[in-house]
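Box S2. Input/output pair 1.
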Amino acid sequence: MLRKTIKTHAALEGIGLHRGKPSRVVFLPAAGPTGLRFSGPGSETPVPALLTSVAGTARGTNIRCGETVLYTVEHLLSAAAGLGLDDLDMEISGEEPPAMDGSALPFAEALLKAGITDKAGQESPAAAAFGAFEFSAGESRYRAEPRPGPLSVKLIYDYPHKLVGRQELEFTLSAETYRKEVAPARTFGFSHELEALKAAGLARGGSLDNAVVITETEILARNGLRFPDEFVRHKLLDLLGDLALSGLPLSGMRIEAERSGHAANVNFAKLLLEKAQKQ
């Protein structure tokens, strides 16, 4: 298997979900085996999208990029990792990427339109070697074990709300299954959280154009839900983006996760990387 990048650049622009400011992201091919990298306002050189760069996990995954922090980068990382890209530069003009429709689909489609290409003479790294292990953090639980072939995931989202309840998803990663079954799933939130989020300076750009809102009595979604289990699919979208920060290939393993969240995802990825480095 050869490393993959894109053939040409692609750009998208819109409003950031939390900061509510105009933003633009440009995807650029990467010539060397550089991995996934970000550039932001004030950053002179691209910063690797790695766990060591994580600056926070409040309602999204944020990374430090030079002297600034880029907020909610997980959808970009998810699109890149879900499509199997090894090397990609992402330039962001604002504090966070544009939210687009609240999913990773616009990013995935832009990357596919730019063209995914093999990099001659540059082999993809082998799947990580590690022993089976479990990790818990509060109500979040994870289990990982080596398994030949593409990444296999079982994800459970369980929330005590009459319109949500328990959603369970089995998924095997490929670029096509990611684009069809995961990338379209949108960010969601509960109406009772909105006031606190905005008081904390978050969700300033949120609307039904880029999020699904769950009230006590109904689910508000532009054109309805895209999947009956859209919530657990979005949790998988986020998990893939956070796992990409490990720098490990998303293959050769089986992961089971329940009640996942960004903070727990990042800590699980750190443990996965630690286990792999000891082999």
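Box S3. Input/output pair 2.
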Amino acid sequence: MQDVPPPHPTLLGVDVLMVATFLAALATFAVLVAVYAAATVRDPMAKRVKALNERREQLKAGIVASSSKRRRNITNKNEMADKVRGVLGSLKMLQDEQVTKAQRRLMQAGIRSKDLAFVVIFARLVLPVVLGTIVIVGVYVLDWFPAWGAFKKYGLVAGTLILAYKAPDIWLKNKVTKRTHAIRKGLPDALDLLVICAEAGLTVDAAFSRVARELGKAYPELGDEFALTSIELGFLTDRRLAFENLATRIDLESIRGVVTTMIQTEKYGTPLASALRVLSAEFRNERMMRAEEKAARLPAIMTVPLILFILPVLFIVILGPASCSISDNLLKN
């Protein structure tokens, strides 16, 4: 007779060798991803500088252009967006308020192209149709889940339709939230630099440009916005419009306070450095209060992981040897 190879060791009915192999493969994949991420580090300002240069050229072209038709040809360069706009226009689904809101959210997410607003609106229309059709055909025609009841199948289809419709808005909201959080972190430092530039005698345009260069590496999102504001201050005829555009692009109450201060300074000639110093102190206190609030919430947040993950392991480590000793004594007796 041939010798039967011994079975693999198991723990609670699970093949230990298979689990170890899976974990080793997962660790190898994680190491490869980490190496790739470390080897492909890119300058965060390279893409932003390109976008700012494009915005500068658009402002120049808008000032030089002599007719509204030429301006329209300059801004509508994206052929795909033009086709999408034509489709939505033929379906009578374009509303000025909806387009304006989508363009504002794109600007707050750091996406400069206004034409992509039509793509977002088109995605709300197409994704539910495509994904809903796939799920309906798979569930009711191909019978993907034969063991499911009618209520579960209906829930899957309804959930897919709702998620597909909300997916573009969720994606935009996520990008806006991350960008706003990054800008909030760097705003006190930016105001301190603006105070230094104002006390050194720089103009508002030069101060914004200098702060954008200094903060470009540490806070690329804020540096991008300040650089664009500096460009608009130099090209737009109404300087107030440049500050209002900054408040529109950033969904943050602190930025609105800064914009209001800058507008009042431009209008009434009030001292800029003292006003910005007060705002910087307020923003630093606000950041410290948010940190203290998170620290105070930490014990309550850690309660659930403590009960679910730490206490069971602690009980096993403490009571495990005693249980083994009791079991051995009972077996001997």
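Caption for Box S3: Confidence is low (pLDDT under 50) at residues 63-77. The two ends are 39 Å apart (CA to CA).
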